[in-house]
Design goal:
With 119 residues, the chain is an all-beta fold. It has strands at 3-7, 10-13, 18-25, 30-39, 46-52, 57-59, 67-72, 77-82, 91-101, 104-109, 113-118. The strands form two sheets. Strands 2, 4, 5, 6, 9, 10 and 11 form a seven-stranded mixed sheet that branches. Strands 1-3-8-7 form a four-stranded antiparallel sheet, with no helix packed on it.
């Protein structure tokens, strides 16, 4: 089992910044992708940003130019730097990874961290 522990959420005013962190632990052979999703009240979960092995990075159109995803592979950690935050960024943010363990490759999710942006 892979455990993902997120931190860094909170309350911020519009235009402010937050940095989310997520560390993966467990008997992991390798991680092929790590990223962030979010879910606002009454809406479906959506992908915010994802980074795959080889350096490929994809962002949701709504966050391009404002959010930056980065990884520390040695620490199995992914970060999300969020700048110029808007009230519509308010959501629970979930860390995601696809990890290879002895039992095979699976998707794993963190417990979620609340990000609230006030206007």
């Amino acid at each position: 089992q892979v455990h993902l522990v997120e931190s860094g959420g909170g309350l911020v005013q519009a235009g402010g910044s937050l940095r989310l962190s997520c560390a993966a632990s467990g008997r992991i052979f390798s991680i092929s992708a790590m990223g962030w999703y979010r879910q606002a009240p009454g809406k479906q979960r959506e992908r915010v940003a994802i980074n795959t092995n080889g350096g490929s990075t994809n962002y949701a159109d709504s966050v391009k130019g404002r959010f930056t995803i980065s990884r520390d592979n040695a620490k199995n950690t992914v970060y999300l730097q969020m700048n110029s935050l808007k009230p519509e960024d308010t959501a629970v943010y979930y860390c995601y990874c696809n990890a290879l363990m002895v039992t095979g490759s699976n998707d794993y999710w963190g417990q979620g961290t609340q990000v609230t942006v006030s206007s």
